[in-house]
């Protein structure tokens, strides 16, 4: 992805945050100079994968396959004294797919905070064994109600949440208008706990055609 495209997507996400009056931590608006001025804090955040994240999954078609995220808090899996949970914000475009993927470690709730409809679909293919040793579920819960995972597109409106079982391949996209989404989960590890159904890349190669508006989490603290 070009840096200019990454900058534009983050600015759109910031506008969406303002639209929903969603307050952010101070480091969400850090410039590269702020990271340089706060090296220890920047490194601490980067080690925990906290901050901005933009990906086109190595496909070069961000509007069709891509995602903007902001990780607000996270721990280091299995490390003593670390938080065992994570919180993210996701900015999902209309018709913009996050492709099928599964997690071995992370159980997560995906919560629609505002905007359009979030469409979630599951696949029986490509299941991975959860680290917990539990079997991969074939049913999901939406706000306490239990539903078959497969054979349907689950459409979530603002205020609704779906629990994504470990090991189950899932994808999602927006419908109607851009969707403002939250995620609460166990520790998140985007380097080692994403198992895609296709041969995809989690991180994008960046073409530096302009200066960064915000650094991505894997660029902060020497990430």
Distance between the termini: 18 Å
Strand content: 25-35%
CATH architecture descriptor = Sandwich
| Tally of individual domains | 1
Describe this structure in words.
With 223 residues, the chain is of the alpha+beta class. The chain has one domain (3-196): Sandwich (Jelly Rolls). The chain is 14% helix and 34% strand. It contains three helices and eleven strands. Strands 1, 2, 3, 4, 5, 6, 7, 8, 9, 10 and 11 form an eleven-stranded antiparallel beta sheet that branches. Strand 6 and strand 7 form a beta hairpin. It is globular, with a radius of gyration of 17 Å. The mean pLDDT is 96. Keywords: Carbohydrate metabolism, Isomerase, Manganese, Metal-binding. It holds the Pfam family Lyx_isomer. This is D-lyxose ketol-isomerase. It catalyses: D-lyxose = D-xylulose. Belongs to the D-lyxose ketol-isomerase family.
What labels would you give this structure?
alpha+beta; Jelly Rolls; eleven-stranded antiparallel sheet; 14% helix
Offer a concise description of the structure.
It catalyses: D-lyxose = D-xylulose. By secondary structure, the protein is of the alpha+beta class.
Secondary-structure blueprint of this entry?
Blueprint (H helix, E strand, L loop, with lengths): L2 H17 L12 H6 L1 H9 L3 E5 L11 E7 L11 E8 L5 E5 L5 E16 L15 E4 L2 E4 L5 E3 L4 E4 L4 E18 L8 E2 L27
Antiparallel strand pairs: 1-2, 2-3, 3-10, 4-10, 4-11, 5-8, 5-9, 5-10, 6-7, 6-9
């Amino acid at each position: 992805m070009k840096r200019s495209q990454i900058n534009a997507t983050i600015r759109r996400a910031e506008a969406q945050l303002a639209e929903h009056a969603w307050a952010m931590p101070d480091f969400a608006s850090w410039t590269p100079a702020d990271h340089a001025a706060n090296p220890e804090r920047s490194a601490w955040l980067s080690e925990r994968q906290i901050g901005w994240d933009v990906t086109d999954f190595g496909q070069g078609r961000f509007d069709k396959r891509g995602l903007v995220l902001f990780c607000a808090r996270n721990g280091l899996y299995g490390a003593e004294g670390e938080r065992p949970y994570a919180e993210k914000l996701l900015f999902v475009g209309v018709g913009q797919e996050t492709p099928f993927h599964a997690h071995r470690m992370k159980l997560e709730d995906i919560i629609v905070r505002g905007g359009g409809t979030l469409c979630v679909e599951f696949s029986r293919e490509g299941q991975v064994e959860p680290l917990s040793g539990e079997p991969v579920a074939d049913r999901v819960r939406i706000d306490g109600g239990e539903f078959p995972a497969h054979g349907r597109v689950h459409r979530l409106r603002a205020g609704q949440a779906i629990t994504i079982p470990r090991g189950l391949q899932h994808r999602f996209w927006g419908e109607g208008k851009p969707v403002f989404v939250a995620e609460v989960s166990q520790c998140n590890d985007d380097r080692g706990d994403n198992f895609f159904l296709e041969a995809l890349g989690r991180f994008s190669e960046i073409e530096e055609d302009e200066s960064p508006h915000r650094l991505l989490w894997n660029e902060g603290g020497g990430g």
